[in-house]
Structure prediction request, 174 residues.
Amino acid sequence: MLKPILIHPDPRLKKAAAPVADISDEVRALADDMLQTMYDAPGIGLAAPQVGVSRRLIVLDCVKEEGATPRPLVMVNPEVIASSDETSTYEEGCLSIPDIYADVTRPAEVEVRWMDTDGNPQQEVFTDLWATCVQHEIDHLDGKLFIDYLGAMKRQMITRKMVKLKRERAREQA
Ligand code: GNR
Ligand code: NI
Prediction:
């Protein structure tokens, strides 16, 4: 089932999410809905707070080449346990901030620990777009958006644009 994606500014996107206490069928169903919503958007990642659920759950699939085998990853309670000193800069976007893109510099490699939907602990080193995306998603769990890395002026300009977009969308709804 597709879930509506919250658009910035929204207090639910600014709140730190609580850990998932136990991996239930409800959590697995939410992860399935999030993957479907992410692919439909289309996006390469999605965090539970973006669909209004304040829990530490993210999904991602950064395989981009047309025809390549997809790699859907579901991470419960993900944590960055190590980051490289080397950084990389990517032009980031966010499904909660549509049609806005900006360069963000982050550690080039991160080691992430998480729980899969079978309750098994997992750990992996991510590089390139995967590293950027997993850090972007974990930021969502801490109530942080990529525009928080930009200067105050740029951020304010983007926020104003989003307020306008939301107003227009609300008007279309009515
Ligand atoms: O679809 C997305 N693309 C993207 C591009 C560069 C860096 C991060 C991302 S994540 C984003 C989907 C999203 O908003 N996830 O929270
Ligand atoms: Ni995002």
Q: What stands out?
A: The pocket of nickel (II) ion (ligand 2) is lined by residues 94-96, 136, 140 (CB under 6 Å). DSSP finds three helices and seven strands in the chain. Helices lie at 25-40, 128-141, 152-173.
